[in-house]
Amino acid sequence: MKRHYWLMKSEPDVFGYDHLLREPDQTALWDGVRNYQARNLMREMKVGDQALFYHSSTRPPHVVGVMEIVGEAIPDPTQFDPESPHHDPRSDPEDPRWWAVSVRALARLQNIVTLDELKSNPKLADMRINQRNQRLSIQPATRAEFDIVLRMGGGLEKAH
C-alpha cells in the first residue's frame, strides 16, 4: 500500500504538538474540522500515512513535528455534542457531515521550519501551503516535499 503525505494545521494554543505529546499514547482524534475540502481530504487518509504538524495563527507559523494517521475517518463526535464548540446542529447522525481521523505523534523536528523558510525554498514552490489562498487546514504533500521539510528542520529528534 502506498503511503500518502499531508500537512495538517492547528493553532498551538488550541491544540498544538505539545498537547498531542501529552495525550495517552501520544494519540488523539483530529476533530473540529469544518471545511468541506479539508473533510474530503481526511476521508482519503489511510492508516500509515504521515503528516507534517503545522502551527498556524502564531508568529512565526511553522512546521513543528511529524505524526502518523493511526485511525481512518470516522464521524466527528463533536458535531453532535451541544457542549462542544464544534457542535453542528444541522448534522444528522444518520448522515454525518463532519469526519475526524486519529493521529499519533512520531517526533518533533530538531528545528521548526517557518512559513517564510518554506516559501523561500525553490524546491517547495509547488507545495500547497506556498500557493496563494491556500488556507486549508489539511493539505496533501508529496513525498519529496515531506522529505525536504524534514531536512530543513534538521531531521527528527531522537527519542530519549
Quick synopsis:
The protein has 160 residues and is of the alpha+beta class. It has 5 helices and 6 strands, in the order βααβαβββαβα.
Commentary on this structure:
The protein has about 160 residues and is an alpha+beta fold. It has one domain: ph1033 like fold. It contains five helices and six strands; from the N terminus they run βααβαβββαβα. The chain has a six-stranded mixed beta sheet. The protein is globular. The model has no long low-confidence stretch (mean pLDDT about 95).
Write the layout of secondary structure elements.
Elements lengths: L4 E6 L1 H4 L1 H6 L4 E4 L5 H9 L5 E6 L6 E14 L23 E16 H6 L17 E4 L1 H10 L8
Parallel strand pairs: 1-3
Antiparallel strand pairs: 1-6, 2-5, 3-4, 4-5
Helix and strand composition category: alpha+beta
User: Helical element count?
Assistant: 5
Q: What's the domain count? A: 1
* Share of β-strand residues: 25-35%
| Poorly predicted ranges | none
CATH class, named Alpha Beta
Quaternary structure:
single chain
Largest sheet: 6 strands, mixed
CATH topology: ph1033 like fold
Helix-strand pattern, N to C?
A: EHHEHEEEHEH
How many distinct beta strands? Answer: 6
Question: What's the mean pLDDT score?
Answer: 95
* Terminal-residue CA separation: 31 Å
Helix content: 10-25%
Question: Can you tell me the CATH architecture?
Answer: Roll
Give the overall silhouette.
globular
CATH superfamily annotation: ph1033 like domains
Strand order of the largest sheet: 2-5-4-3-1-6
Instruction: Output the radius of gyration.
Output: 15 Å
